[in-house]
Automatic annotation (TrEMBL):
It comes from Daeguia caeni. Residues 54-247 form the Peptidase M48 domain. Residues 1-39 form the signal peptide. GO terms for molecular function: metallopeptidase activity. Its cofactor is Zn(2+). TPR repeats lie at residues 328-361. Keywords: Hydrolase, Metal-binding, Metalloprotease, Protease, Signal, TPR repeat, Zinc. It comes from the Bacteria. Its EC number is 3.4.24.-. This is M48 family metalloprotease. CDD domains: M48C_Oma1-like (cd07324). PANTHER family: METALLOENDOPEPTIDASE OMA1, METALLOENDOPEPTIDASE OMA1, MITOCHONDRIAL.
Length: 468
């Protein structure tokens, strides 16, 4: 599981609006937040994990099809955050790892995805941007009127008029914010109803959505927080339950449960997230009724890998593999343990097995296999390593880590031009444009003008930072 993050700097008005939205987000399934187009490399801490990505893809596929989004290239991205939240941007649905960890059933996360699909299918982002422009205009005009009134009052010596000018400016910002939040609450309610339709269309229950809202309502009640319903971006949880419960219970699928196989995959993902988050309390709490079950032992094995020794972790993964020999992700984790044990040849075999067992042939696993081959340091393995790394990059070209491994492989072969170009790509997709240009310029000097690699280097040299 790998994480990458860089901060962004929103405008002052944006910060005011987002801070209000952020408060509401803790009380709701999803905040439809407008974020930069380059989200993966500029503001969102993205988590990459083949196992969890495959699970979420299986959750998403039927919902996206029902929403008419399956042909639009919508992608679901995992965000490294402990809070229960999700949001959309462009053609992407972002889901916090905390949401997966807290959701007790697959159906709860499927409900979240259905809600976000409702936002995408309804074009809510585009309309929200228009509302933001309108709200910004209202606030600016109000501020100008307030300044004008204040100046006029000061010029005439009328202190009350000067104070009134400040009141006009503050009042206009408040009105703009309330108008925007009212619009958002309407869109959230619409997305909830659309989610019910998608769940019905795919023969799935909406009970998970209600369970989620009930959890939020209980948490809000226990906190004793007093919420001004006009200053939040989502309807209150109790209100959402009231709006949806009758509709949800009318569905013939309301009592349908997730399959045991899907539930097990969900629990394995939850255990993995808890282990990587070093949240032992959550891990123990999740599986207190089955402390010797597969998910609990999986989480424990990962903790041993991360915080113990390979010698302690390896037998635990071997036992898991004996129980589920065709689980590619157990073999993948075994490969990670062997890398930590300084056995790259053994790791390469484990990653190769994982890749052979996974019908998706995920890019991350191909990169892991190539990385292990490269780390053997054997010249005869370098071409195979480069082949696997390039295949992984071709399937997932915006993942910077793969380019870093590729640069190391080319470096071991003495091909410094391609090593520099791969390093340039790694920096480019990490959002480090200046560093990318430096390595691209260095690579280009060693390449034949007009060749594909030379042209790629030129593209990086000519690249400009995206406008904020």
């Amino acid at each position: 599981m790998m994480i990458a993050a860089l901060p962004s700097r929103p405008s002052l008005f944006g910060r005011v609006i987002r801070s209000t939205i952020a408060v509401a987000s803790a009380l709701a399934v999803a905040a439809t937040t407008v974020i930069p187009a380059q989200a993966q490399t500029s503001s969102v801490p993205v988590v990459r994990d083949a196992e969890i990505e495959a699970l979420i893809a299986d959750y998403s596929a039927p919902i996206l099809k029902a929403a008419g989004l399956n042909s639009r290239g919508v992608k679901v991205i995992l965000v490294n955050s402990p809070s229960f939240n999700a949001f959309v941007d462009g053609r992407r649905i972002f889901i916090n790892t905390g949401a997966i960890m807290q959701a007790e059933t697959p159906n709860e996360i499927i409900g979240v995805i259905a809600h976000e699909a409702g936002h995408l299918a309804g074009g809510h982002q585009d309309r929200l941007r228009e509302q933001l422009k309108s709200a910004r205009t209202m606030a600016v005009i109000g501020a100008l009127l307030g300044v004008g009134a204040g100046v006029a009052g000061a010029a005439t010596g009328n202190g009350e008029a000067a104070k009134a000018g400040g009141g006009i400016a503050m009042g206009s910002a408040e009105a703009a914010m309330r108008t925007l939040l009212s619009y958002q609450r309407t869109e959230e309610a619409t997305a909830d109803r659309m989610a019910i339709n998608y769940l019905n269309a795919t023969g799935q229950s909406a009970k998970g959505m209600l369970d989620t809202f009930q959890r939020f309502a209980s948490a809000l009640s226990l906190s004793g927080t007093q919420v001004d319903q006009y200053r939040i971006s989502h309807p209150l949880p109790r209100e959402r339950i009231a709006n949806l419960e009758e509709l949800a219970r009318k569905s013939p699928y309301f009592d349908r449960k997730d399959s045991p196989v899907l539930q097990l995959r969900h629990d394995l993902a939850r255990a993995k997230i808890a282990a990587y988050s070093n949240n032992m309390r959550a891990l123990n709490s999740m599986f207190r009724k089955e402390p010797t079950g597969l998910p609990a032992r999986y989480g424990n094995a990962i903790v041993s890998y991360l915080h113990g020794s390979p010698k302690a972790a390896l037998p635990k993964f071997d036992a898991l593999i004996k129980e589920q020999p065709k689980n590619p992700y157990f073999h993948e984790m075994r490969g990670e343990v062997l890398l930590k044990a300084n056995d790259p040849a053994g790791a390469a075999k484990a990653f190769q097995t994982a890749l052979s067992l996974d019908p998706r042939k995920p890019a991350i696993q191909r990169m892991n296999y190539g990385r292990a081959l490269m780390l053997t340091g054997k010249k005869e393995n370098m071409q195979a390593a480069i082949k696997e790394l390039k295949a992984g990059i071709a399937a997932d070209p915006e993942y910077p880590v793969g380019y870093g491994f590729l640069a190391q492989a080319y470096g071991q072969l003495g091909d410094m031009a391609r090593a520099d170009l791969a390093t340039a790509d790694m920096n480019y997709y990490s959002g480090k444009l200046q560093q990318a240009k430096i390595f691209a310029t260095r690579a280009q000097k060693q390449m034949k003008p007009g060749s594909p690699d030379w042209l790629r280097a030129q593209d990086i040299i000519n690249a400009r930072k995206p406008k904020k």
